[in-house]
Design a protein that fits this description.
Blueprint (H helix, E strand, L loop, with lengths): L1 E6 L4 H13 L4 E6 L2 H8 L5 E4 L1 H10 L2 E5 L7 H4 L3 H9 L3 E5 L16 H18 L1
Helix pairs in contact: 1-2, 1-6, 3-5
């Protein structure tokens, strides 16, 4: 199973996701993709993974991923202070991978019905979802 972790800005959320996935699912192939080099470098510190940066890396890796996970903002054009290009958002929206979006209020996207949990709780729930997907394959 190929899991692509996408993050931007400082890559802190992506790094937390990578750390948790490495601890609980060491057998999955992990690729981290940052919208900038700082995000990529920080995510790579989270554990053994391959890494790439930028628009083309998002397009290429989304097309081959089984699961794509990241903050909800990566799914919207011009989010993250403009780091997410329209082509990135389109690649994420149209890829055949299972998509897991972690809600964060900084993105100015409010999803009704979501419980207000700590980021660590959302990441734990996302990793459990990936475990279930991995068990199916």
């Amino acid at each position: 199973m190929l899991v692509v972790v996408i993050d931007g800005q400082g890559g802190g959320m992506g790094r937390s996701i990578v750390e948790r996935l490495r601890a609980e699912l060491p057998e999955v192939e992990l690729v981290v993709v940052g919208t900038n080099a700082t995000a990529t470098a920080n995510m790579l510190k989270g554990g053994q993974a391959q890494g790439a940066t930028g628009e083309n890396a998002v397009l290429y890796n989304c097309a081959r991923a089984d699961v794509v996970i990241g903050p909800i903002g990566v799914f919207f054009a011009n989010a993250m202070l403009g780091e997410v290009t329209p082509r990135m958002a389109e690649a994420l929206a149209t890829c055949g991978a299972e998509k897991i979006a972690i809600p964060v209020s900084r993105c100015h996207i409010n999803i009704m019905g979501l419980k207000d949990h700590a980021l660590s709780a959302h990441i734990a729930e996302a990793v459990e979802t990936i475990k279930q997907l991995n068990n199916r394959s």
